[in-house]
Structure formats: structure tokens, C-alpha cells
Amino acid sequence: MINKQASSLSEAVVDIFDGATVMVGGFGEAGSPIELIHALIDHGAKNLTVISNNTGSGHVGLAALIENKQVKKMICSFPRTANSMVFPELYRAGNIELELVPQGTLAERIRAGGAGIPAFYTATSVSTLLAEGKESRDFNNQKFVLEYGIKADFSLVKCDKADRYGNLTYHATARNFGPIMCTAATVTIVQAKTIVDAGNINPEEVITPGIFVNRVIEVNNPAHESSLVEQEKKYPW
């Protein structure tokens, strides 16, 4: 009988290895798998390459993982935001690498990786520093830059509801990068606010089919809905 439920957060991330490439869902705090990230901090895997929309907020979640010096490289669209204090300091000190990718291009690179598409052309970044050293080609008298699909060893994703098969639904904009990241990783690990009995999710409402999910863990009181302040007290790095 298929049952993809992990017994604990630590079990869910136990095989993330040093040097792994890890996609992390979330748009700011919306959809960020904070508890899975903190389980990864406790697990201790280091020299990670992390693919995410941004570099986290404050001193929790992804920002805490970076602050704990477990990340060697960020691939993201927004390395600095109003509440992003950790990454800019480490980057200026030369202690972390950055690959800056426009947001739409990042989403399409992940989607392409999950769909088995090796590369695609886009007009985004033409005639900017981000296009330097990249192959370009003209289509209909317009220049386009070649970008490569991207995959990861692991994806950490947050959803609203899951079943033991790994079928997922999301809450509103907290969906963001979750569905495409689920398709683009060798191992997809999901924290769900609720895990329901098999058959209790209407198939018409499933956003990510279970075939793309390896593990689910129920976290029914996620950090952004309780208190980020309490998380900062727990992880005061």
C-alpha cells in the first residue's frame, strides 16, 4: 500500500546530502516550508546550492539556513528584500555565491527542467549584464538569449492539503513555485497543513499529482500562521 507519510520532520530530510542542490518553494513567507528548512538546519547538510525566489526574511527559514553557513550558492531572483539582512552581508564578504535569474526566467527554467526540456530562448535579459557570455539567436528580427532548464536533487515544498499518496492542493498564492518545483527534483519533500485520508481530495482539485511527490509530513501549525517571532527565539542565529 502506497503511503508517503514521513514519521517526523527529521526523517523527511534525512537523506539530503552535503553538496546537494535543493529547490525551496515560497514567495517571501507565502508558501515557504519553514519547518522543513529548520529540520534541514538541524540535519546539518552543508555546501548546498539552493534555488528559490529569494533569500528569505529575517532570521528564520531560508535566511536561517544561509546564516548557519550551510549554503554555498544561491540561484534566485531577489537576493535582497526589505527583510533580507543575512544574504547581503555574506555576499559582500565573499562567503556565498549568487546566480541572479529574472523571476519569469527562473520559473520557466524550473518548469523546463521538470518537463524534460533542456533549454529555451527568451527575450528577458537581452542587452544586460545577465546576458553576458550566453548564447543568443535572432528570431523574426528580435534577439533572444538561451537559458537552460534546471533540476535539483531535492525540493522542499509547502502545501495546504495532501493525502498519503502525495496528491497536493495549495492555498491561493502560497502555491507559487511549489507545483513546478515538485516536477523538477529527484526527491520532492512536502510539508502539508493537513494530511487527509485517501480519497478525501477531489481529483478535480489536485494541483500536484502524487507521482511527483516522494514524502509528505503534516505540520498543522506552520510558522507563518503562528509567530515568526517565536521561530526567531527558537533559532536565534
Automatic annotation (TrEMBL):
<dbReference type="InterPro" id="IPR004163">
    <property type="entry name" value="CoA_transf_BS"/>
</dbReference>
<dbReference type="InterPro" id="IPR037171">
    <property type="entry name" value="NagB/RpiA_transferase-like"/>
</dbReference>
<keyword id="KW-0808">Transferase</keyword>
<dbReference type="InterPro" id="IPR004165">
    <property type="entry name" value="CoA_trans_fam_I"/>
</dbReference>
<dbReference type="GO" id="GO:0008410">
    <property type="term" value="F:CoA-transferase activity"/>
</dbReference>
<comment type="similarity">
    <text>Belongs to the 3-oxoacid CoA-transferase subunit A family.</text>
</comment>
<dbReference type="InterPro" id="IPR012792">
    <property type="entry name" value="3-oxoacid_CoA-transf_A"/>
</dbReference>
<protein>
    <submittedName>
        <fullName>3-oxoacid CoA-transferase subunit A</fullName>
    </submittedName>
</protein>
<dbReference type="Pfam" id="PF01144">
    <property type="entry name" value="CoA_trans"/>
</dbReference>
